[in-house]
Queue: 2 jobs
Job 1
Amino acid sequence: MQLAAASGGALLVKPDFAFAGEIDNLSIAWTTDTASWDPNQRLSPDPQTILKMVFDQPIDMTSDLKLAPGLLTDWKLADDAMSMQVTLRDDVTFSDGTKLTADDFRYTFFERIQQGQEIDLAVGFGNVTDIEVLSPTEAVMHFAKPFPIVAQWLSFSASYIVSRAHAEKVGIEGMKTDPVGTGPYVLKEYQRDSRIVLTRRDDYWGELPSAKQITIEIIPDPTARLAALESGTVDIATELSIRDVKRLQQGGAFNAVTNPIARIIYITIREDGVFADRNIRLAAHHAVDKALLSKAFFGGDAVTIDQPTIPGMPSFLPDFHFDHDPDKARELLAASGFGPDNPVTLDFATTNGQFPGDYDIARAVVTMWEKVGIKANLTVITESQWYELNASGKLPAASMFVWENGTGDPELFAGNMFDADLPFATYRTDEVTAMIKPLLREPDYDKRIKGYEAFNRFLIEEGAMIPLLQAIQTIGYRKDIGITPWANGLIRPEAITTT
Amino acid sequence: MILAILRVIGRRLLAIVPVFAVVTVLIFGALRILPVDPAQMSLPPSATIEQVEAKREAMGLNRPIWEQYAIWAKGAVAGDLGESSQYRMSTVDVVLERLPATIELVVSALIFAVCVGMAGGLLIFTARGTVFESVGLVVTSAVMALPDFLLALLFILLFGVLIPIFPVNGRLDPGMQVPSHTGFLLIDAMLTGDFSIFISAVEHIALPVMALGLAFSPTIVRVLHASLINTYQQSYILQARLRGLNGREILFGQALKNAILPVVILVGTQFGGLFGGTLLVEMIFSFPGLGNLMVKAMQLADLSVIMAIALIYCATTLIFNSVADALAYLLNPRLRNG
Amino acid sequence: MMGRNYRFADLGLFIGGSFAALVLICGIFAPWIAPYHPNDQELLYILAPPVWAEGGTAEHLFGTDSLGRDTLSRLIYGARTAMTVAVAASFGAMLLGAFFAHLAGYFGGWVDWIISRTVEVWLSFPPVVLSMLLITGLGIGIDKVILAIVLVDWTRFCRVLRSEVQVVRGQDYVAFARLIGLSHPRVIMKEIFPATLPMLITLLSLQMGISVVVEAILSFVAMGVPSDVPAWGQMIADARIDMYYAPWGLAVPIFAIFLTVLSFNLLGDGLRRRLDPRQSAERGA
């Protein structure tokens, strides 16, 4: 993992897939459409599968979240993490026939942001001060502050390389409707929020996926997605309810998998108001029976977590536990003068339908809290309202949140969750800032990870957040198809075969 | 006579303009009360406070509310309805993409409702005096107690869970290509010449149309039934009978023409209800139309899209009222002569 | 023939009235009738089938929902929500609508013009969408739902009653009352209002059904009552996600709404036939 973080090897870590047969048309029922076809525009995780079929990231990721060469064959981070040298492939063309060069790399990760274009890519790469183009395949990135996880960011959402020539031809508005990428598919037909048809380009630089054409049906409604699968309208359907998965697994014509992904479900905590009292924060955590939540809503398949990361990822502490202990919770509350007869009241916000189980989990937690003496007023908000409320300081004391981190790196977990400069932080104290600032610029990999281990432990012992579960992705599919699930939740066409 | 009709329609359309203005002012005002910051929402989450402020200035959100409305109205007349904060694209584009689907759904549902409603009304009327009339009226009452969204859910339960005959989402089977000429899928599908594509389009639109249409039809049944009863009390019916015309000739030849007037008026005035129904029906069937877009826009507080769609609803309701008025004028001999 | 029709109409009135009364009783006495508290979760016993389906027990007659809450109890408490909203909203809409209708129909002239134009503006918009827009601006909560329904549906009362008022106003006895010097308010209350009362009651009954539906729609799209208040619309929204696994969870609240609305419609129809003097005169002829 250390080598992969510091410099990418030319050896491919790409698993080999049995290239059995060709599929004429593969239909996938998906949950949300992409907001636009400008791949750098939004960081939202769900549309990334769609974007990745048309575009490529500089650095790719294996099914178990290890970095692998993508459009970059090699990358080397300087010892002080203030610059990184990259080498690009020389055999890549965009779908309009033009060749990919380091100039496009510079345009994507530096010039677009510098020009002030309103793209989420700025969240990760606002730190770039320049990209020196040494040759059509060599470039050096320079950063304003040490950027130890630049390679992880280059493999992450929204980090797709776009063509400068095309961008300058169609303009920023044109980028949203006219995608030209280096990926294995080109956009053939598009009906917003309804259907996307992609056809494979045979001059793709990498291994050709098995499907000649992919049709993505956008079906936000989970029952409609299941109906589409069962009626044969689609071959693959994602994010089905866990009960439907169990049912499909027992039936004859379909298969279904639950795939634990690099996404965690947790409750955010504010450091002020009701939660200024540490006893109440810890009591709220002790009161939650995470195993019961997993059993009730995920058939027991969702792994419970007590820290802001997932098992197997760097900075995960295998021996650290935070027990479900309602008695301890009541004790802590009593110490602060509260109890089931004299409950502490707080506001609790949740989304409904943003991710599977969100509303159910929130309501179950409300009941668990009630039993120990916390009375929560539950309100339903949308994801964009969450950001708005947080930015204006009006976010309720607690809220349900899902955190996506396709890289597995702790900076993109706890680091981003608690960095007071980013719009995701809800728990802001001087202590947290003091612990996090040095980690954000630590170039030594092992030191950084050790630092995050301590940071994670601190966060939980202070009650700065309540981790609940590692999310699972559910995929239902026709029995004569094989799918290899990806730990970052993407559906990769290369991972789909006919059996 | 053409002149008279044109005058009626003209008068109606002129009346639309002030109504339009009032409705837009009301909705604009109602939406501005929202505790939502459109500037924040249309920027990436990493935007700093200065950037948000700058965006607020650019969007004109700091000016007094009537000035904001004036800006919006001026843009609207020129065809610019602002930018959608969800999609970060022109509102007009986003809305126009969805409009044909909903129009297709509503028109098909209307045709379905009128056919079923007229058939039902006629059947119950011809059965008057027998027990079937009462049965028919009870059935009508029963269907009336099922609003469109309940019917939609029931259809999914029946035809999705129990007996899968119809598809329950979208407009077409996957893999089917339909080049978009008019935007109306049924017409475009016919133009491809491929019958299976047309059938697929019909299958997909069947359940939403039936849910919407069936919910609308009981009122037509009742009004036609009552109207026929009224009409048959007129003297010219008795005269026709004396002249020797049989039941069917009287019904279709004389009575229906005059009895249909209240139905026409009813359809015209209730048309707005059909659009209200599209919101939930489209949501339940994942039908990519305006209704679906409106629900999402309301949940995400995408103000420009809400205003744009509200405008469209208002316009279609008013236009349809006018058309119904004109038709009523055509059909009613008394209005014509008097 | 006529006799049978007469009895049918009365049958409708009886059935409709009884069931409507049943729903009202459920609403009022919910805490005593319901076997469980509607928000009691049993996370290990979710989506249990009703007693008549395979695997159902008498413990939960109608089964449980996705959080293990008893469906029958939620149905009964949902009746309380539905009836609270329906009664408050219907009376509110009736009072507002009747007030303006009597003003418009009685005084005529510019008063009528203003009120009619206002009603026209209101009606140029799909009512459900208007309610949703109001909620988007006002926020959720049972009082906001009631307000949203009142502000939208008063026009229905106003439009229908206005013509009634106009008809009655043209009657001789009203002119007579004015002639002998009775003031406007007295004439309205004593002469006009009693004549419009039957229509008012019918409309009120129909409005109850409409209010139940609107409340269900708003709860369905999560723009209605808060999540800890049981509502039929929310039961439907929750049950829809698992409808392949537990179809009864979806069918039961649908039937609850259907039967409630049907009973209020039958009641309204029956009342109209009974109370409207013109209709009963026709019947006798």
Note: The first strand of chain B starts at residue 83 and ends at 84.
Job 2
Amino acid sequence: MEDNGAKKCLLDHISFQVDDGEMLVITGPNGGGKSTLAKVLIGIEKAESGKIFLNGEDITDYDINHRANAGIGYAFQQPPRFKGMTVQRLLALAAGREMSDQECCKLLSDVGLCAEEYLNRQIDGTLSGGEMKRIEIATVLAKEHTLCIFDEPEAGIDLWSFSMLIHKFEEIHKEKKQSLIVISHQEKIISMADRIMVIDDGKIKAEGLKEDVLPCLNGLDKCHTCAGKAGVRA
Amino acid sequence: MVELDHVVEEVLKVINDNGFSQKGAFNLRQNGTSICHGDSEHIKIKKKTDKPGIDIYIDGDTKGEKVYIPVVVSVSGMTDLVYNDFYIADGADVTIVAGCGIHNSGCNESRHDGVHTFHVGKNANVCYQEKHYGEGNGTGGRVLNPVTNIYVGENSVFNLDTAQIKGVDSTVRETLVEMDKNSRLYVTERLMTEGDQTAESNIEVRLNGEDSSAQIISRSVGKGNSVQTFHPKAVGNNKCQAHIQCDSIIMDHAEIGSIPEIRARDLNAAIIHEAAIGRINDEQLLKLRTLGLTEEEAESVIIENFLN
């Protein structure tokens, strides 16, 4: 891929599958390629080779909006601000339809915001980083997706809101049966996963069931016990 | 009730968001003539005898009432000059909905120059909304040059909300505001130009009274080869506060200039100016595209909300 004008291999031989209703947590060191992978999945970044399938449909050549309409929801790690746009308007755009005050309030409450105060707030510099992050998550929750991708949803969120967020992920995962890819360093989120994938230096270092990969996370290089079960690729 | 032709009705739909109706206090001017007008219990409209235009008297018992004074120019080649004076009594609470639309299907320039002067008493609350719009498939220019003079009395609040969204080939907007003790001013200016259109806006606010305050927000989008120039000026002649914020989105080959001027003549005057010009943020486009919008749709949503 192009990185600042130079050709670089940012992701190499990445191949994995997320089953219906499954929650995959991607973790690993900073700069290892996790966010790049998420951007490749939604179409913000293009890979030079490889294929991406969604429900058996080859979406490799789809651009961002086609992938979104095909059923991928994506929450940015650092969401952009929109001068002049209200929170309610953004949520309506995210839902793809007009939303009542009540519906918007419910969504905002789900991410830990005191809803009525925010409906007519502009998504500009008057909102804190934490508020922006929670609104960003609400934009993904505004619509049902086949696959939701969250890039470090915990960043910038206080502990109380984080607990609510965990609850929301559980709801998406267990009740709505939507597939989830969550990029995270947070232990609580990692422990919610069905499967865990560790990415470092653009490569998959480990991938497998939570119970197999979790014990190895603190010392991946030294771990031998899970190599067979989890497919550790040290 | 006067029957309006189709062109006038369509233009009025655009320049009056909530629709124009011949009820209450109103005055509709078409092609240099007042074609219908009405008074209400508290708002009286009188035709000037010495020059074209009207005097609007809003008494102190006016509470939450709206007065509509739209202008439509639908003849190609016409230059319409009008003087409208508003006398707003102490304690009045009123919304004045103005606006001008030019429909030009010919090859000659159509032009409207509206000179509006507001005399606002004490403890009044005034909201003035003005939308400018041009349409028609003629080659003749559509020109609007508004002049707005506002005198805001003690403890009064004045909201000036102006928008020029589409179809005006050339505009030079002159606004002068004089503010008395403890008065407040909120100005919101929205402007979009495209093609070879030009727009110039000069706003001067003189904060003369103690504890007066002003907030001026200007948002604009320049497309095509259009040229925009903003010259906001705040002069603090007393203990006061003023904040000017000019934001512009530049597209294509447009040119946008912002020339601020802030001047303090009192030690306790606090005046701030912020200005930014830039292209549409890529991250904003990407975010909206991840919601399923095409690039064109995303761009349009960003502009629409930015100007909202």
Note: The first helix of chain B runs from residue 6 to 15.
